[in-house]
Specification:
Number of strands: 2
Helix content: 55-70%
Radius of gyration: 19 Å
Strand order of the largest sheet: 1-2
Shape: globular
Distance between the termini: 24 Å
Number of helices: 8
Amino acid sequence: MFKKILWVFLISIVPVVELRGAIPVGAASGLPFYWNFLAAVAGNMLPVPFILLFVPAVLGFMKRHRIFPRLCDFIERKGMRGVAKLQAKSREGTPASEIASLPPETDTLPTESAALVRNDGQVKQEKKMIKVTFGVCLGLFAFVAVPLPGTGAWTGALVASLCGLPKRYALPTIFLGVLCAGVIMTLASYGVVAAFSVFAK
């Protein structure tokens, strides 16, 4: 059983595939749902702190030295689409009662955004203001929690990193999203397996 758990753990680390691909594999291999869920969540969360900490700097370095430029552009475009959505939510004027656990004087947090912008072949950083509201955190949570193509912990962490969302809000929000996605995929996967087992009898 250890090999099955390890296999699920490793699959869930892979970008694009992530938890939504790992849990069905574990279910099909006969792994108990609780081990499948725990291994997939652990594997899916493993890259998140590193993405939040290092992706902007790594992307900047790769763009400056023209290392895999097409890959950099793809990652940046993918992340900035999510950034635009979160920044739109931060400008919606969410009522004070919905501010996500912030003291009144820090409703608006000036952050150094890691959004990378091409300027005559050079890479620079833009300073952006992002209001950390309940709506922003809810948007990031939904982005991670809904197990659809193009969403997940990797993309959610990329979006949070590029828009400068403070890590103390991004990390727990992404974790809750991963838990929710894990529950959805576990219910779906084991429901399907159970349905097929009825017909196999």
